[in-house]
Amino acid sequence: MQENSAAHKTKLNIILIAVLVLVVLAIFGVSFWTNANKVAQTAVVKDANGQEYVLDLNESQTLTVATELGTNIIEVDGAAHTVRVQSADCPHQDCVNMGAISSAGQQIVCLPHRLTVDIADAEARPEYDVVS
Amino acid sequence: MEQKTSLSQTPAIQQKQDIQQASDVQQILDSQRASIRRITRVSLLAAMALLLSYLETMFPLPFLPGIKLGLANIAVLVALYVCDTKSAAEVALVKVLAAGFLFGSPMMLAYSFAGTVLAFFAMATLAKVPSLSVTFISMVAAILHNAGQLFIAAIVLQTPAVFLLNFPVLAIAACVTGAITGVIATALVKEFAK
Prior knowledge:
The structure holds 2 protein chains of 2 kinds. Chain A is of the alpha+beta class.
């Protein structure tokens, strides 16, 4: 009887874990599918002060973003159509270690400097045109 | 005659009182022992949480920037199962505050505080449900820890995309890291129960 209930418990937990993993995969799938249909030609950099910079992904360039929180150097590789944080003076270097991103919906975040780099279409978000 | 009876009664009463006193003393000793055991365990687990936080700061996972195993949560889970909710809350508090001030920055502390609070309430609630495994609870906690952190990050950065874009990936990572720490916590809970 006790063995039976232990087996039941194990079975219940395997089902629960499977459901949890499936839900998480479904969320990932929906998010992936939503972004897969988007094509973006620009990287949008937003700094701690809310200042936005739009970088053309087809044009190799570097942008230095300096705020009172710190400095990030962002580099676009026009040939590879990618953007990355080349260097930063933040403690953990997560933004640098994230490497290069290239497809719509991808994002690099530098939490200590409150900086985000998004691959997003500037045309689809007209507010960025004003800044660029 | 009267004196004799009173004399013979006195030791009996005295004995009764002695027994009463002895059992009172025993009760006090027992409760003291229990509270000492609790304090010892909380201290031990808090020290463990701090050490694990330190290890994770010193040796981040290679190739996975920003992802941590969440080893310190093992101590919180063990406290929840071996001691009680209050003890686990104390361990979690030490984990967030001490680790945040020692190895992080005030801003990082705010992120991890939000994650830990959310994860802790989930763990404390789910631990009361019979027949749920430590591993499953650990996975749920890991996912919620990420959700809490990202929620605060999205508010601080004023970009909802921070949550929406990163949560799906981090939730998958949390399933894996939560399962790993859950299995370790299961083994430790068994060890403590011996």
